[in-house]
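Methods, example record. To illustrate the input and output format used throughout this study, we show the complete record for Amidohydrolase. The sequence lines were provided to the predictor; the line carrying structure tokens was produced by it.
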Amino acid sequence: MASTNGMLDPDDSVILLIDHQSGLFNTVRDLPIPDLRNYVTAIAKTATLLNIPVITTASVPDGPNGPLIPEVHQYAPHAVYVPRTGQINAWDNPPFVQAIEKTGRKTLIIAGTLTSVCMTFPAVSAVQAGYKVYCVVDASGNWSKLATDTSIARVTQAGAIPTDTFAIVAELMRTWNRPEGSRFAEILADHVCPEYKCLIESYGKAQAVVKDGPETKLDKYK
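The corresponding predicted structure is encoded as:
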């Protein structure tokens, strides 16, 4: 892509999905768990559709934090999992950083549960290491809205860019005028904004009426 106009470049991006674990999800209180799972799924599907590298990791998955939710590797089968040896900040784990460096890319899209730790800590470290960092707040999840608000302030002050799942999908796809346009619409409608699916259904019905005529015959009442 010749110019990104200040937007995300999918050819320079790596997606880091950190500690999206079943046990940790039980502590999330700033957004509904079904929404969180859907947002993570949307990011995984988008990464697969655009062939963006995905690196995952988990914090003590054989303990109460639990395993990664299955959607992560189900919908991003190309994702590389990097085990840790107890580090809370994934950036403190050398193999994790090495996996990022191996991609040769310098833009990181980070989501992690919990927001104020698993998203924020590596985001701050990555900025310091010279990466451009986007933090997907609604695909992370935290124990309180206040904790999320302070985390957004912290990553912003550190130089990272807070964003949300809908914006990430739209920014990476860039245009509807592409062969995968309808598949992006499905991702947004199925996992991010159900209301958008209603718009798609209404438009489809309107097109059918234009083609086949109205289903409801009201002319007899005229």
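Annotations derived from this record:
The mean pLDDT is 93.
Strands lie at 13-18, 54-57, 80-81, 107-112, 132-136, 161-163.
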